[in-house]
Amino acid sequence: LSCVLKYVFSNLLSLQCEQIIQHLNHKSPGVNTAELCQRIQASGIEINVGDLAKIANIISFLFSTAARNNLSTEELVTTLGNAVNALPKHAVQVIRHVWNEQGKSISVSEDARNTATVGQFVDMKWKLGVAMSSDTCRSLKYPYVTVTLKVADPSGQITDKSFEMTIPQFKNFFRQFKEMAAVLETV
C-alpha cells in the first residue's frame, strides 16, 4: 500500500509542478489547488487545501528562483537537498524530473523581475435570489444578486471570492462594466 500511495503522490505532485510551470510561463492563470486537493483526497491521501496551497507556493517560488538564477537540474536538486532535509526522496525525484523536462521553458524577462504583480481575474458567475423570510421577519421578498469571482493571486493560487448585492448595487455594478467596455472599445 505504501508503494501505491507514493506512486499516486508522485503523479499528483508531478501534475502540480507542471501546472505551476504553465502558470510561470503565462499559459494558465493559476493552479486550482481546490480541484487538485479533491483528486489527492480521492486517491486516499489525507491533505487539506491550505497545506496544498503552501506546497504550491513553495514549488512556485523554487521554480521561479531557479529560472531567474538559470540553475541546472543538478544545481537545483543540490540546493534543494541542502535547504530541505525533510523532503521525501520521491518528491525530490519528481521535482528533478519536471525541472529537467520543462524547467528551461520558464522565461523570466527583465520586466517580469521588476514588476509588482497583482491577482488575475479568471471567471465570474452570478445568480439572482430572493430572501423569502428570516427569524425576525416573516415576509421579506428581498431580491439580491450573488456574484462569485474566480481569481488567481500572484503566486497562481486560484480562489473564489463571493459577495451579495442589492438590485440597485447590481445596477451600478453593471453600469460600471458598461463604462469599462465603452472605454475598451476606444483602445
Automatic annotation (TrEMBL):
Gene Ontology molecular functions: NF-kappaB binding
Signal peptide: none
Top-level taxon of origin: Eukaryota
Name of a matching Pfam family: COMM_domain
Domain called COMM: residue spans: 120-187
Function of the molecule: Scaffold protein in the commander complex that is essential for endosomal recycling of transmembrane cargos; the commander complex is composed of the CCC subcomplex and the retriever subcomplex. May modulate activity of cullin-RING E3 ubiquitin ligase (CRL) complexes. Down-regulates activation of NF-kappa-B. Inhibits TNF-induced NFKB1 activation.
Similarity comment: Belongs to the COMM domain-containing protein 6 family.
The protein's name in its UniProt record: COMM domain-containing protein 6
Gene source species: Steatornis caripensis (Oilbird)
Gene: Commd6
